[in-house]
Design a protein that fits this description.
This protein has helices spanning about 1-10, 45-60, 70-80, 135-140, 145-150, 215-225, 230-250, 275-290, 355, 375-380; strands at about 20-25, 60-65, 100-110, 110-115, 120-125, 140-145, 160-165, 190-195, 260-265, 310, 315, 320-325, 330, 340, 345, 435-440, 450-455, 460, 475. It is built from 10 helices and 19 strands. The strands form 5 sheets. It has a 6-stranded mixed beta sheet, with helices on both faces. The chain has a 5-stranded antiparallel beta sheet with strand order 10-11-12-13-19, with no helix packed on it. The chain has a 3-stranded antiparallel beta sheet with strand order 4-5-6. Helices cover about 20% and strands about 15% of the residues. Keywords: Signal. One of its GO terms (molecular function) is cysteine-type endopeptidase activity.
């Protein structure tokens, strides 16, 4: 144990006292919308900023917090970080960036693009003023490109920028000088910039909730994934916000699709709670445990310490689960359902094979999801009655079930009486339909017949499932 602690200190204690510094701004007080004011009051930025400050402070950040700041206040705070302000009372040394530090800029409030000298530039709207057009925003707002440039030119090692802004479709106002909804990309150099909304989108506030949609998921995922690289964290935030607005829109709510945009030019990995410490603890745990088999490194999964061990799975709050026997990572929800952080909501979709192959392969920060092979799909079958195997019709050449009565089908007996259904570990894969699930494996004799698993009984068959037949599907990633 002493050797382990010493190794930890050698590996993860910095040689110099590098700091983590953050400037957090929440602007919500704006005049009511009128003919001479495109922006109105916002419901969330004060709480967004406070909650972000508290979270960052819990990870050791020195946080400079501003609420309802004017342009001069925001400029002063940025220059304070860079060391261009000498007032030690308002700008103490602990807020000044030094070599090797991490610097983070977070803004929640109004903002927009403005056409300027041949290109669009992003401006953050100072609080407590009206903005009739782009000229006003240029005059009284703060140029986000200027802020990014200051961070890029600082001696900090890690430079992060989070912009929860662009909350009005000001482009539709017809006012001269105003750009499209959403922020223009800023092409960071050696930094990471995360925008709450993509091109021509707006970032939605939540009047009846504490935080805006983007900040809500940013806070949640930073808490859950603090030992994961920030590049992966912002991908998870993007996916969560996108899926939530899809769900809200289908439910008839007055929202538009919002998909955050990330620009990542960081060198190496940065994890808010340290990337290496949890890996060392995990290695020690694996050495002490004879079972289950460790998750192979090739799966690039989050630490098992962050997931919940359920039988031979490690289930994660981001909607994924790793099978420690096979090393495969599965989506906890069937395609069409949505993970809400606790369970699978909505109705699973049925689709034919050609439609299934066109589905997006991006989820939970990974881009390589696919339809499982029949062998991989079989590995999900779980019989609550303890039956270790299931009847397979894969070699049933006559397709006649009547002459197979002596062989148990699947988990055997009547579903609900002799075994629980669906025949899958339901605490890992909640609300799974008790029905047919597609594989990507074809029948040996035909390219139009695919194999499947029936999760009512737990058996598979390749005899009757045509490419054109619509059934359910669960995606996987990892070994093949």
């Amino acid at each position: 144990m002493k050797k382990l602690i010493l190794l930890y200190l050698l590996l993860f204690t910095p040689l110099s006292a590098a700091k983590q510094i953050a400037l957090v701004i929440g602007n919500e007080n704006y005049p009511q919308i009128s003919q001479r004011n495109l922006f109105g009051p916002l419901p969330n930025p004060h709480e967004d900023a406070k909650d972000m400050k508290d979270l960052l402070a819990s990870y050791g950040f020195q946080v400079y917090l501003l609420k309802d700041a004017g342009k001069s206040q925001m400029e002063y705070a940025v220059n304070c970080l860079i060391g261009l302000e000498s007032n030690r009372r308002k700008c103490p040394p602990r807020y000044r960036i030094a070599a090797g530090d991490t610097v983070l800029f977070y803004y929640s409030g109004h903002g927009a693009q403005v056409w300027e000298t041949g290109d669009y530039y992003n401006y953050l709207a100072a609080a407590n003023r009206a903005y009739a057009d782009g000229v006003d925003l240029q005059t009284y707002g703060l140029n986000a490109h200027w802020i990014l440039g200051k961070l890029e030119n600082s001696p900090a090692k890690v430079k992060l920028m989070f912009l929860d802004a662009c909350r009005n479709r000001i482009a539709e106002s017809g006012k001269k000088g105003m750009g499209a909804a959403g922020f223009a990309l800023m092409q960071p150099d050696g930094a990471l910039v995360s925008y709450a909304a993509g091109s021509n989108q707006i970032a939605w506030g939540r009047p009846r909730e504490r935080n805006s949609l983007y900040t809500r998921y940013l806070l949640q995922i930073l808490k859950q994934q603090a030992n994961q690289p920030i590049s992966r964290v912002v991908k998870l935030v993007r996916d969560a916000v996108f899926l939530q607005t899809q769900k809200d829109k289908r439910a008839g709510k007055r929202v538009e699709i919002q998909k955050p945009k990330n620009e990542d030019d960081l060198i190496g990995d940065y994890c808010m709670a340290g990337c290496g410490a949890i890996a060392l603890v995990q290695e020690k745990q694996e050495q002490q445990s004879a079972q289950p088999q460790a998750v192979p490194e090739t799966t690039r999964t989050p630490s098992q310490a962050q997931g919940q061990r359920i039988k031979h799975y490690v289930a994660y709050a981001n909607g994924t689960a790793v099978d420690t026997k096979t090393g495969l990572m599965w989506m906890r929800c069937a395609v069409g359902q949505e993970w809400d952080g606790v369970t699978c909501q909505g109705e699973a979709k049925k689709m034919d094979w050609d439609t299934a192959k066109q589905q997006s392969t991006s989820y939970a920060g990974y881009e390589d999801w696919r339809i499982p092979t029949i062998e991989e799909l079989r590995s999900l079958v779980y019989c609550s009655n303890g039956k270790p195997n299931y009847f397979s019709m894969a070699n049933d050449t006559d397709n006649d079930w009547s002459n197979d009565v002596a062989i148990d089908w699947g988990c055997a007996g009547n579903p609900g009486k002799d075994h629980k259904y669906p025949t899958i570990v339901q605490t890992v894969f909640p609300n799974t339909p008790s029905s047919l699930f597609r594989s990507d494996s074809f029948h040996d004799s035909s390219s139009s017949i695919l194999q499947y698993i029936n999760f009512l009984y737990g058996f598979d068959s390749n005899a009757i499932l045509l490419r054109s037949t619509s059934v359910h599907m669960r995606l996987v990633r990892g070994r093949q």
